[in-house]
Amino acid sequence: MRVEIISIGTELLNGRVVDTNARFLRDEIKRVGHSLKLVTMVGDEDGYIEAVLAASMSRSDIILMTGGLGATHDDLTKRCVSKVLNRKLVLSAEVLDTLKKRFEQNQVDIPASEQKQALLPRRCMVVPNRYGTAPGFICQEEQVVIVCLPGVPKEMEQMWTDEVAPYLAERFCKNDQKVTLFARTCGLREMEVNDLLAGMDAQEGISVNLIARNGGVDIGFTMMPDRHNPVEVTVARIKMEVEKLLGASLYAWKEQCLEEIVGRLLASKSLTLGIAESCTGGLISHLVTQVPGSSAYFERGLVTYSNQAKQELLGVSADTLEQHGAVSSQTAREMAKGVRERADTDIGLGVTGIAGPGGGSEEKPAGLVYVALASRKECLCHSFRFTGTRETVKMRSAMVSLNMLRQYLETGYVR
Amino acid sequence: MRVEIISIGTELLNGRVVDTNARFLRDEIKRVGHSLKLVTMVGDEDGYIEAVLAASMSRSDIILMTGGLGATHDDLTKRCVSKVLNRKLVLSAEVLDTLKKRFEQNQVDIPASEQKQALLPRRCMVVPNRYGTAPGFICQEEQVVIVCLPGVPKEMEQMWTDEVAPYLAERFCKNDQKVTLFARTCGLREMEVNDLLAGMDAQEGISVNLIARNGGVDIGFTMMPDRHNPVEVTVARIKMEVEKLLGASLYAWKEQCLEEIVGRLLASKSLTLGIAESCTGGLISHLVTQVPGSSAYFERGLVTYSNQAKQELLGVSADTLEQHGAVSSQTAREMAKGVRERADTDIGLGVTGIAGPGGGSEEKPAGLVYVALASRKECLCHSFRFTGTRETVKMRSAMVSLNMLRQYLETGYVR
Questions:
Q1: B282 → closest Cβ in A213, A282, A366
Q2: What's the ipTM?
Q3: Which of A52, A298, A355, B341 could potentially form a cystine with A279 if both were Cys, beta carbons 3.0 to 4.6 Å apart?
Q4: A67 in contact with B at a CB cutoff of 8 Å?
């Protein structure tokens, strides 16, 4: 079903309050398998609320409104719903009774302003509020269901869970079967991932959604399971196809960072790590140490920006620097070996390149990066050619370095 | 002016990406004194995007769209704007030329798919993108201004600041007499800045807007100039008051990063820098090396996570570590002196602390950080107590370290 969320309240627009309700409902909608189409945040102004509601009703099946229910003067939701649906507000004896009882409990007379809470659009279903005084309600208008809940997160969540979710499940969810999958990659540009997955996106019932972020590309797959196979079979088939298409660039099937994956692998194998960085300038060490407990496996990181530092701290030879340059596979290898040997760690990473925008040449352009990995057994080195800003080149270099380490550890390296 | 924000991207609706762009623009709109009426988040679907845009145009003066610009198949913004405004997409020779040049720099031929980036709605104004390949654009249709920017926050923010904000100021703000000022601070929490500036916020005609970000707090001042004084006088008076209230925590009166300020100071004084980090894990070196040309003054950074590394690489004495611990002013000082002497730089920074969440004790809780600065003349050390997550503690530690360096350099240190 097509769902829209409308969050009402000027405090949301000016940033005094963060709209956590939309986040909660978004996750709930996803969980149930409905399709969220729009989220609108609107202030306490009749005209805008009415326009947004009317537009939503013309295109969606379920409209979830939060906020603007209550006794203060700027709470306009009921008035707007009443106007757009052309249904009068009528007094609910049942709601008024509940309100009176609640105030009696506290030995207080119900204020006149609070009695307004019992005014609700005609023919609506009341959603009781266990924690507050503003009831919610559900209106059905032709094929559209409009749900109005208060903006206080605690009240809204309870009302959603106890009343609205079961109501909607009963009413709608029977035939919707969409499945979603999420994957993370690094080392490829958005366009490259797009091209590699072009064939998948063309398959019936599958849609692919790419997001470039943090130096990598995340992929969302949404699919309608085919009628002849159980969901698990479809998911397994798609995973296999994607893994084949993307190879080692694919590093996770869930929301997980490379530094966490690498950290877990190092910790579980009781291996230690030393890092020698040039063009990434400390970024890899920074990422590795973002993980709590990283001091258990991360021994040191050396940001050897000058040639002198590379020689003194890592033992890169003057010959290598002269013959091949600071940006070369030879230097990267000596950096990785140097930091590993001197720190006496199991693994050493060495990264050198040209972050740009300056410093490039025809032979060695900005964006050229060498990553070397040394273990007690061997030393590997890969080269990369990145485009983009200095920041992008640094970030993508850091990601492929950590990914190279991930692959090495996952393919079974032990001390 | 009535403003609407439309954030485009299925990744926003399903929660994989948080819509920080809407937040940024919301604060900007507030700062300039416009009125934000609606924020809509819509997925990558033509029908919905078109409906939302058309509705916005009927009721608002400025429409800010982000996302959905790019060469991949799910980037639909241009197509939708073209349809709703009934303006064909035409090839911009100027944009194509810029794109070609950018790819040439990296010695790569421009892919056919990237050439699509140069297709823009007729009669639009191009907004150049310094950091990415997707240009933005501004269309004016009757009295409504439609601004389309890419969804990558860094690109969007630069384009907003350099092009769109000045354009809108020129176009709309002429009778608006409001004056805005912007300041950046570090080392203080939002609430602390709030308390320090409480007296200012209470002054007639001045409003203060705080935004916590990147480990610091940014401050927007909006003021109605008083009738008896020219604007410059009011601005000068406010700047003086704020500088007195915030002291050294205030590091810039414009959108400038600490690492840029520090870089400029080092370069102009021909000084070199070495950094020894423990709890910040490479973050300070990473920030310093974000600045193009930093290799001219940044010699090396040592991430000495283990005690052994602190002793071997920096010469921190075993006695100091045993008597005072790795997290102490003594260790911080020896780190700063050690890296400075061994790298033979003019300045050495040493940072040690407990990033948390684990590793703290009653005497030395998580968030306790020592920052030392050594020059050829002297060695200073300050301690800080931060609260927050591991990431926050790292970021705030990095900021105060760079700020301590800024102060030292600004107060006139020369070799």
A1: A282
A2: 0.73
A3: A355
A4: no
